[in-house]
Amino acid sequence: MRRIGIIVGAASLFVVAGAGAAGAAPVLQPRAPGATAPVTEHRVFERPLIAVAHRGASGHAPENTLAAIDAAAERGAVTVEIDVQLTADGEAVVMHDTTLGRTTDVERVFPGREPYLVADFTMAEIRRLDAGSWFGPGFEGEPVPTLDEALDRLDGHGLNLFLELKAPARHPGLEEKVAERLRAHEEWLRPAPPWEARRLVVQSFDWEAVRESRGLLPGVAHGLLGRVPEDELADYAWAQMVNPNHALADAGYVAAVHRAGMEIMPYTVNDRPAMGALIRTGVDGFITDYPGVGAAAIADATGAPDGVIPRAALW
Questions:
Q1: Could you give the count of Cα atoms lying within 13 Å of 238 in the half-sphere of its Cβ?
Q2: Would you call 54 a catalytic residue per the annotation?
Q3: Whole-prediction pTM
């Protein structure tokens, strides 16, 4: 059921004239000086249902690279998910695995440095690595980006961000460093209007790290990766999202998360029929390696030609 709000504001400069179509921005009209603001009824706006590009469009380009962010933008993504860790010298770097072997040529460049942990290499050393050739020859020489570079590229494309704190127990100070870099890019701390997708979500499988980040960035939405037991959801009311594996998100669990006042965007679903089934459970979105396929699945399931439809905002 859609929620209706009553606003009374004798000192406000604007009044809502009408909400228009579902999910549309309000029409704001200036009020004459000295005029009394009327009691205005309007509904709470709805956020869109979206397909979040996992590690960028990682089905089309090497994951967690600027090329993957570009590929997500080219495929009409609204939001991109990336993973962030710390180097040996405390730089925030974009990388999923805690080791460098799978997605770079670290074993060739630095033989004998096993186990090739991200945390054991300086940023200057990581700069020497090729993070693209493993995916395909067209990406040869693609670097491992810093968080700052990723934030700039995302902002340049007008994309939103799901930022995962990766293995924070291995990276003491990760929460503080991420908060520092986000404050240095203050445009990321401006929340999106409630009828648009969230500008920024910080999430992690380490729920205590999420709680710490929430204290550092109180104005930013935070998400819990994994399946919070239904009888414990109320204990995490300080978070805005619970994002479990898509195989664990049935309609009953989705409804339980919603009753707890949180959103749910499961990971990582790449099969088109599975996307449709997930949408039918009532999720607020999902994470996929193929954002274009995800948008098409949303369009098919909802009849929205642009693949982005309004969903009930959770407050």
A1: 15
A2: yes
A3: 0.84
Task: With CA atoms as reference, report the closest residue to 260 among 287, 281, 231.
Answer: 231
| Residue 313 to residue 207: CA distance in whole angstroms | 23
Q: How far is CA 123 from CA 136, 143, 152, 171, 258, in A?
A: 24, 11, 18, 14, 41
C-alpha–C-alpha distance, residues 12 and 66, integer Å: 43
- The DSSP secondary-structure symbol of 23 reads T
For the question of residue 96 being annotated catalytic, the response is yes
Distance CA 18, CA 151 (A): 35
Q: Residue 172: phi, psi to the nearest 5?
A: -55, 135
Instruction: Find the catalytic residue in 42, 60, 96, 222.
Output: 96
How far apart CA 169 and CA 287 sit, in angstroms, is: 24
Annotated catalytic residue, options 54, 60, 222, 246: 54
pLDDT in tens, 244-301: 999 999 999 999 999 999 999 999 999 999 999 999 999 999 999 999 999 999 999 8
Here the tokens at position 90 are 């405390």
Torsion over CA of 278, 280, 281 and 283, rounded to 10 degrees? 70
